[in-house]
Each structure stands twice: as C-alpha cells, then as structure tokens.
Design a protein that fits this description.
The protein contains 9 helices and 7 strands, in the order αααβαβαββαβααβαβ. It is an alpha/beta fold and 261 residues long. It has 2 domains: 59 residues; 184 residues, 3-Layer(aba) Sandwich (Rossmann fold), CATH 3.40.50. The chain has a 7-stranded mixed beta sheet with strand order 3-2-1-4-5-7-6, sandwiched between helices. The longest helix has 32 residues. It is elongated. It starts with 10 loop residues before the first helix and ends with a strand.
C-alpha cells in the first residue's frame, strides 16, 4: 500500500486554470476575427486577453508550486516541512498528542512514527474547499505507514472539543492562515489551551505581522505565564526553504513556534 498525502496545489486547480486560459485565449482570438463594432471588438477582445494572461500566470505559478510540494517530486518541500516540524515533538510513555488541521494526516503520522511510545490524534474539518482530504484518506495513509498509534476525528480549530491541559503535545502546519475572521493569536491560544504543563508544541504557519500581529509580544506573554521555553524560528532562511522559494510560493513570513509549556 502506498501513501497519498496529496498536493497542497490540487490537480483540479491546474486543470481549471488550464481550461480558463484556453477558453479566454480562444475567445480573444475569435473576437478579433469577428465582424463587429471596432470599439466593442477592442474592448471585448482586450478583456478576454487580459483574463487569459492572468489565468496563464496563475497556471504557471500552480505548476511550479505543485512540483515543489509534490511528495513524489525532486524538491519534496511538503515532506521537509512536515518531518522538520515533527522533530520538535516528544511524547512521554503513554502520552497523547494533538495535530490541529491534519489534512491528509502527514504531520500526525510523522509525529506518531517519531513517538511509538505514545499516540497522536489528528483533527480536521475536511471542508469542501479541500475535498481531496478526508478522514478515510488519513486512515489509509496511517495504515500504509504502519502508524497504528494514530486516530483521526472531525474537529474545529477555533473551538477544540477537549478540556484544558488534555495533551502532552500539540502541532499544526499551515492551517491558521486559512481561517478568516479570527484573530490568529487567539487560535494559537486555543491550541495551547489543551496542552499539559510540561508538554511540547510545534506550530508552523505564515506568521507575518500582518496576519499574526506582534509575535515577540505574544512570546513575552507566554513566558510571563510560566512557559518553560518558547522560540519563533524563521523557516524561510534555509530551515525549510530559501527566501526566494518562499517569495515565489507566496509563503513569506513562514515560521515555527516551538517550545515547552
């Protein structure tokens, strides 16, 4: 059995952009050959042409990103990020960790494989916008990896269905920036709420100031509350990717919040 962690840039997006580019490009060409009012022709053909160029540009980006993120490709950036994040998680004997927004189960499984003495729970809403991800896919990937110390459930990152200090570790990867209308530091607080005293955490996301606010102030607040260790690691300076890659992939500001409560 082979794992299928999917691609962060789905094939459906590439297919849709290819079709859009073709349709708009063809439409622009047809309009230029059509007998009609010159002014209207110029306006309509120009609009279609601009649309085709825009779709074409997005298509080029999608193909580039798909190649970089692919688990089967040469770069395998997704794998590097997942496995690099999992390295920060340690579970005690019989301990339990929580992965928020587990998607296809990659980070949950990586943490479970690194900690056979414990187990990992992955939760996700598996919404329509990520239709290729599902609980069944996570379970199939776990079985393919031989990670029988995992389980997966429906869940909401904004309001976790767990009591305070339930888990020995918490993780997340590129989830919170996708949640609109919610303060990102509040999302971090909600995840850290369910972490036990002495537990480890590793949360990776696009933590730019525009999205997350003052993270240094946030870290200071955690220390004031008694957290043992907190560190914000820029992952765009060679940790996971280069600054050029981050810019081209629109991942600027990516960082790991790691530490011990």
């Amino acid at each position: 059995m082979k794992t299928d962690y999917k691609n962060w840039v789905p094939n459906g997006m590439i297919a849709a952009l290819t079709a859009g580019t073709a349709v708009l490009g063809t439409g622009a060409a047809v309009l230029l050959c059509t007998k009609m009012n010159p002014t209207a022709k110029k306006l309509l053909a120009g609009t279609a042409g601009i649309g085709a160029a825009a779709c074409g540009g997005m298509l080029c980006w999608a193909v580039y990103a798909h190649d970089k993120f692919s688990y089967d490709g040469k770069r395998q950036l997704s794998r590097q990020i997942v496995e690099g994040t999992a390295e920060y998680i340690t579970l005690p004997e019989g301990g339990v960790g929580l992965d928020v927004g587990c998607g296809s189960g990659a980070l949950t499984i990586a943490c479970a494989k690194n900690n056979p003495q414990g187990r990992m729970i992955g939760i996700d809403r598996w919404g329509a916008e990520y239709a290729s991800f599902s609980k069944q896919l996570c379970e199939k990937n776990a079985a393919a990896e031989g990670a029988d110390n995992t389980e997966f459930h429906q869940g909401d990152a904004c309001k976790l269905d767990f009591e305070d200090e339930t888990f020995d570790a918490v993780t997340s990867n590129y989830v919170y920036h996708n949640i609109t209308g919610v303060n990102k530091q509040q999302l971090l607080r909600e995840t850290l709420r369910v972490l036990k005293k002495g537990g480890t955490f590793a949360i990776h996301d696009i933590m730019s100031k525009a999205r997350y606010g003052d993270m240094q102030q946030f870290i200071s607040e955690l220390y004031n509350e008694g957290y043992e260790r907190v560190q914000l690691i820029d992952t765009t300076t060679g940790k996971f990717m280069t600054r050029k890659e981050a810019a081209l992939l629109m991942l600027g500001g990516s960082a790991l919040l790691v530490g011990r409560k």
